[in-house]
Amino acid sequence: MVPWKHFLLATLAAAALAGCNRKAEADAPADQSANRRASIGSLKRQLDEASDRLQILEDKASQAGSKVKQEFRGEIDDLAKARDRLYGKLEELHSAGADGWEELKDDAARGVDSLGRAVNRTWKDLAADERTAEADARER
Predict the structure, then answer these.
(1) How far is it, in rounded angstroms, from Cα 114 to Cα 60?
(2) Using an 8 Å Cβ cutoff, are 68 and 133 in contact?
(3) Smallest Cα–Cα separation from 83: which of 39, 122, 116?
(4) Best CA proximity match to 118, nearest among 80, 90, 87
(5) Which residues, other chains included, contact 74 with Cβ-Cβ below 8 Å and sequence gap of 6+?
């Protein structure tokens, strides 16, 4: 191959690669925005699921005997307050700047995970207390 053809091919390849880099740089904000929306959507789905289970838990507790109802009322109220705070965090994520976004997202994810585990634990405790109350009632 003639030396000027090598030069021409190298120049064309460099120009093409530079164009790819500019396109990747231009797409980066769009990719970040899409990643943010996906993260927020995932956290919202998890929080909605925990909220649905909490609502069912509230309904079960309100139908339980007065002793069980009293025992779990405060705990369920605390879980509902935590849920409401987490929905507020999700709203903050929508408008968070690049600087604090990752930390806020991680904080929200830990909160959603913690709420889900607490709702499940309370659910199991309520079921156990209901079984105990039923057994006590049968013994009388």
Answers:
(1) 21
(2) yes
(3) 116
(4) 80
(5) none
Residue 136 burial (CB count, 10 A): 11
Asked whether the predicted pLDDT for residue 106 surpasses 60, the reply is yes
State the DSSP code for 18. Answer: H
Instruction: Show the tokens assigned to 108.
Output: 């929200």
CA–CA–CA angle 42, 39, 28 (5° rounding):
150
What are the pLDDT digits (tens) for 21-45? 444 344 556 777 888 899 999 999 9
Q: What span, in angstroms and rounded, lies between the C-alpha atoms of 35 and 82?
A: 25
Q: How far is C-alpha 88 from the geometric centre of its chain's CA atoms?
A: 12
In angstroms, the CA 2 to CA 23 distance is 32
Write the pLDDT tens digit of every residue in 49-86: 999 999 999 998 888 777 777 888 889 999 999 999 99
CA–CA gap between residue 15 and residue 6 (Å, rounded): 14
DSSP string, 60-117: HHHHS-HHHHHHHHHHHHHHHHHHHHHHHHHHHHHH--HHHHHHHHHHHHHHHHHHHH
**1: enclosing H helix or E strand:** none
